[in-house]
Design a protein that fits this description.
This protein has helices at 3-7, 22-30, 45-55, 92-103, 118-130, 145-153, 175-186, 280-294, 302-324; strands at 11-16, 35-41, 66-70, 82-85, 107-110, 134-137, 161-167, 192-198, 203-204, 210-211, 214-219, 225-231, 239-243, 247-252, 257-262, 270-272. β5, α5 (118-130) and β6 form a beta-alpha-beta unit. By secondary structure, it is α/β, with parallel strands linked by helices. The longest helix has 23 residues, at 302-324.
């Protein structure tokens, strides 16, 4: 769809996958006044019903907005302005290729974890480059105003130490957000393993896949260090801290509280406001609106997200293989 169509407030959006996350994306785009048509694809009747229920909660919908509920690509309309893919990670590159070829979409927001293997990650990159697709990845933490503010405080040339401690929210499922945040702060083009201590227990996720608990560590050429520690016996939210030569801050997700200090003030702690809204239904509305209006948003592009995804998939592969007692090419994560 052309920018003129977007400007005339006659935008079509496609949602592929309408489960717990996809239905929240649906709420987000349904609240945008410029979105007049939404196609939702999911073969599961219970997922489409969840979408209908959550759509009824949206208070700012346009009366002229139309929704098409589809169980296959054949039922969806072609050439919309934006496609949001909220399916599980398995087969992600094939799915994006099919959407682009069958329905003509060229602009995407993809859920993470992007793929289940580095090989499929490479296939996804090849697919998007060959078809000249514009792709953003829903690793939204780097887009929070709070984290953008903290990055402005850091000297780009100075290495940082980022430490995150919490309960077992999942080294893969939630860990990808934290690794991407480290890449955002450091600006790294590559991460190196600095050792890991993964617990010998497979954690089952709500979506029928697996995850891990334990400790992951990475480093960068600049000298930055990253540690992610998730205990397997509780689910407390994260406590995050970052330290550099001239600046430091701490951040408690449970209490929604943050403080900073710096060398210039003698390292005296002072509170930082934290008002970021982590709800998917609100965040996606902003990202989609920015993409539709100007062809950009604060989410990482596919290319920017590769650093974190490559490292995490490679780091976790031997641990999943050991615990499942077979050499895995695709990790059972989503």
């Amino acid at each position: 769809m052309t920018s003129h169509a977007a400007a005339s407030r006659d935008v079509r959006v496609l949602i592929v996958g309408c489960g717990q996350i996809g239905s929240r994306h649906l709420q987000a785009v349904a609240s945008l006044p410029q979105v007049r048509q939404i196609d939702v694809i999911d073969p599961r009747p219970e997922a489409l019903q969840l979408g209908r229920e959550r759509l009824a909660e949206v208070q700012r919908r346009q009366s002229s907005q139309t929704i098409r509920w589809c169980t296959s690509f054949e039922e969806a309309r072609r050439r919309g302005a934006l496609c949001i893919v909220a399916t599980q990670a398995q087969g992600r590159s094939r799915l994006v290729r099919e959407i682009a070829d069958a329905l003509g979409y060229t602009t995407f927001i993809l859920e993470k974890v992007l793929t289940q293997s580095v090989q499929e990650l490479d296939e996804l990159v090849e697919c998007t480059q060959a078809r000249q697709l514009r792709v953003w990845v829903n690793c939204q933490m780097r887009a929070y105003p709070f984290h953008k503010l903290v990055k402005q405080r850091l000297d780009p040339a100075s290495p940082v130490m980022l430490n995150i401690v919490g309960g077992n929210l999942g080294l893969a499922t939630i860990g990808i957000h934290k690794v991407d945040l480290f890449v955002f702060y450091d600006g790294a083009r590559r991460l190196e393993s600095a050792g890991s201590q993964v617990a010998p227990i497979l954690q089952r996720t709500a979506r029928g896949q697996c995850d891990l608990s334990g400790i992951l560590r990475a480093s960068t050429a600049k000298g930055s260090q990253f540690t992610l520690s998730y205990a397997g016996d509780h689910r407390r939210l994260d406590r995050l801290s970052i330290t550099s030569r001239d600046y430091r801050y701490i951040f408690d997700y449970e209490q929604r509280w943050a403080a900073e200090s710096d060398a210039a003030s003698g390292w005296a702690w002072r509170s930082l406001p934290f008002a970021d809204d982590p709800l998917i239904s609100h965040l996606t509305a902003g990202f989609a609106s920015e993409i539709l209006a100007g062809g950009r948003c604060d989410l990482p592009t596919l290319e920017e997200s590769l650093v974190a995804h490559r490292w995490l998939l490679q780091e976790l592969q031997p641990h999943f293989s050991r615990l499942l007692e077979r050499e895995l090419e695709c990790l059972p994560v989503t």
